[in-house]
Amino acid sequence: LLLRMQTPRFFLEKDEVILSANIHNYLKSAKTVTAALETEGGCLQLIPAAGPAVQKLEVPANGEKRADWRVKVVREGEAVVRMKALTDEESDATQAAFPVHVHGMLKTESWCRVIRPDREGAMIEIAVPAERRIEQSVLEVRYSPTLAGAMVDALPYLVEYPYGCTEQTLNRFLPTVITQKILRDLGLDLKAIRDKRTNLNAQETGDDRNRAADWRRVLGDLRWSGEKWVERNPVFDEEEVGNMVGACLKALTAMQLSDGGWGWFSGWGEKSYAHTTAYVVHGLQTARQNGVALVPGVIERGIAWLESYQAEQLRLLNRAAKKASPWKERADDLDAFVHMVLVDAGRDNAEMRDFLYRDRNELSIYARAMFGLALHRAGQKEKLDMILRNIEQFVVQDDENQTAWLNLGNGGYWWRWYGSENEAHAYYLKLLAAVDPRSEKASRLVKYLLNNRKNGSYWQSTRDTALCIEAMADYLRASGEDRPDMTVQVLLDGRKLKEEQITADNLFCFDNKLVIAGRGLESGRHTVEIRRAGKGPVYANAYLSNFTLEDFIAGAGLEIKVNRKFYRLIPVEKKVSVAGAHGQVVQQKVEKYERRELPLNARLKSGDLVEVELEIESKNDYEYIVFEDMKAAGFEPVEVRSGYTDNELGAYVEFRDERVCIFVRTLARGKHSMSYRLRAEIPGSFSALPTKAWAMYAPELRANSDEMKVGIED
């Protein structure tokens, strides 16, 4: 006599499951078998109406019968299941322990609000579930008078970059000089705020000082300069900045070639390039505007080289009409860059301006933003308005998370300098800072750039990081966000819980959050109100986290959203024509299915094939995202081997007992889909807890799908 137990790999609270004993009689005669179910742990409760705990079965010789018990999963813990098959001759029994999981999850809901200067407050409606673990409830409200001020976090990456080409030598000191000039203009005591930092990015949670300076966690507070230990972030040390600027300017001067231009590096065999020279001249112009004394003649020789280059390009453009070789059909992106730099130097060229305006539709959006800056500085309002309208048709705004971004469509030239998405957005921000700094679009662009920092505190490279800092500095000054003067109040249901005065003096050290946890947060609906008295905008985010025990858990998400769908796969007869062994045409069956979406509380048959599809929407480009798709207990995955599969996201997939884990290395902005298959096996009524999405290194980035309920029948 042999008994085989049939159960799920785990149990989930509130499910109803049919436990089965498959009894095989290998004896020579039929037997009356007493089948008994026993459980320990108090997690499983027998439903008597579906059958008693002890059952009598007549099993023929060399035959088999199945005994079923329907149980209700009443609480989490560990369940011991024991089944017995007793006869007057031989008997068998088996026992196993199973995890019983709670019907619940840690759910985070996120909201974003902006109080514009012409408004006084904003409200957020929240709902705290009654069924929850109270001790794990947290409401966190964060607010900031500027998001652009968070640019200071990227400076250590630029300072410590280990290589010294022309661009990196410039960007080692320029963003630090720009940022320090802003702080000095505010009259801030740099040493006083060095160790007391407020994270000005209201979207980020966690410990401010550590989160806003995550390079400290990895590398420590100090670095060895070659002579002494110094602060990693030099912006707070005037002497260190002075030494660094002097060394970098000396290196850049030495790297200038004899013709006045710059190449990638220096030395024998190097030659001047228009892009590198324009980049350095623009950087030196910016440094001089921020109080840096330059070596006489250096920038003038660079400007002369650019004028010579522009004159040659004009000669080629003018030869295009006669097709006289060599000639050039149209003004290009590099011409726009050089023109902008020369206009900044007071060397406007009307002929090149006309060529660029004529060919504006052939320029990348990056170059159009540069040309727009040149037109603004040259006072060409009519042409500038046309360029602004031209760029605006590519702007996408998201009211839900208060961002704006450019739909560049640059997949064909992303590797070129004008194909950089971050730099294109940064130059558009510089243009808006010059022409309309208080616009909603400009502040939304700042937020989008912050959301797309690839590495926590900096962007993708030294060049785009430096340019983003430069653009945010322009915006900070032009918008007035560098000089807030306001009182911020946070109220819950009309009751004031927080009041904070924010000025330029305490911009980097004010208390930027309200946290209510545990029993301080009552169940039910609440209104969170953020009020501002004074001048300047307020950027606010609210995060409500609950370990919810609700019977149906609804989806949530802001920056990432996930929608899970279940489909029953119905086999379809399909044949294709293929070549046979002798070259003849033969008909061959192929595996083909029709998908039918399953509604909530759908009923399946044991053995049905089910496809689970995750529809993912990402508002930004992200890295290291994990999707945990929770299984219903009665299902088993068709795939059994974990690893990289041919899924749509190129993700690493792990098939575990109670979930399928999907690890996505890079998740691009937009909509995505991926799927895998399950087979319905154990009868019962089951819940599939929501799919959870979260960023491995950014705790505030969380989302979940709706819960799914499904039944399986024999």
Write up what this structure looks like.
The protein is of the alpha+beta class and 714 residues long. Among the domains are: 2-101, Immunoglobulins (Immunoglobulin-like, Sandwich), CATH 2.60.40; 105-145 and 488-547, Sandwich (Jelly Rolls); 260-379, no CATH class; 552-713, Alpha-macroglobulin, receptor-binding domain (Immunoglobulin-like, Sandwich), CATH 2.60.40.690. The strands form 9 sheets. Strands 1, 3, 5, 7, 27, 35 and 38 form a 7-stranded mixed beta sheet that branches. It has a 7-stranded antiparallel beta sheet with strand order 22-37-36-29-33-32-31, with no helix packed on it. A hairpin with a 5-residue loop joins strand 8 and strand 9. Helix 11 runs parallel beside helix 13. The longest helix is centred in the middle third of the chain and has 21 residues, at 298-318. Residues 212-220 have low confidence and may be disordered.
Structural class: alpha+beta
Helix residue percentage:
25-40%
Mean pLDDT: 88
* Rg: 33 Å
CATH superfamily of the domain at 552-713: Alpha-macroglobulin, receptor-binding domain
What characteristic shape results from the CA principal axes?
Answer: elongated
Number of strands: 38
Largest sheet: 7 strands, mixed
CATH architecture of the domain at 552-713: Sandwich
**Strand content bin:** 35-45%
What is the highest CATH level, the class of the domain at 552-713?
A: Mainly Beta
Q: Helix count? A: 15
Taking the alpha carbons of the first and last residues, their distance comes to 25 Å
- Uncertain spans, ≥5 residues at pLDDT below 50? 212-220
